[in-house]
Write a structure and sequence with these properties.
Layout (H helix, E strand, L loop, with lengths): L9 H29 L1 H31 L4 H26 L8 H26 L13
Helix pairs in contact: 1-2, 1-4, 2-3, 2-4
Length: 147
């Protein structure tokens, strides 16, 4: 029995790029809506929220994809640890913004939170759609006649 994967690792990069592009596109729309409805502070807050999600989640997906191509047997463990670290980083950034006082005046906490929530939702949907379109198998089937 082997843990060597036969699938191409480029499919994971395509899903990453698709997810990032979709999230940035929706984020730009949100920034425009925020600018029209609530001004420059709201637009900046929405942009920071979307940018935070795109940067943190992109790095996490890149790490998991890299580990999957190098050592597939460790993929699930690395994915779980990466997810936990993503939550910690996101919480640390928001806590840092709150403690610095930026959420009380320089930034609009509602638009920042809305940007984070919308970007996370769009990322998840785009990643699911991208993975389904790329037809990335859950596991590699054994070749015919192999035991």
């Amino acid at each position: 029995m082997t843990t060597e994967s036969k699938q191409a690792t480029r499919q994971g990069v395509a899903v990453l790029l698709w997810s990032a592009a979709a999230t940035v596109a929706v984020g730009l729309v949100l920034v425009g809506v925020a600018a029209v409805l609530a001004g420059a502070t709201a637009a900046l807050s929405a942009a920071i929220g979307v940018g935070l999600v795109v940067s943190v989640v992109s790095f996490g997906v890149f790490v998991v994809n890299t580990v999957a191509s190098i050592m597939p047997s460790a993929t699930v463990l690395v994915a779980l640890v990466t997810y936990a670290l993503q939550l910690v980083v996101m919480a640390a950034v928001v806590l840092g913004l709150a403690r610095s006082g930026m959420l009380d005046g320089s930034l609009d906490r509602r638009w920042l939170g809305g940007g984070v929530a919308l970007a996370a939702l769009v990322w998840m949907i785009a990643q699911i759609v991208g993975a389904m379109r790329a037809r990335i198998p859950l596991y590699d089937l054994p070749e015919a006649g192999a035991r």
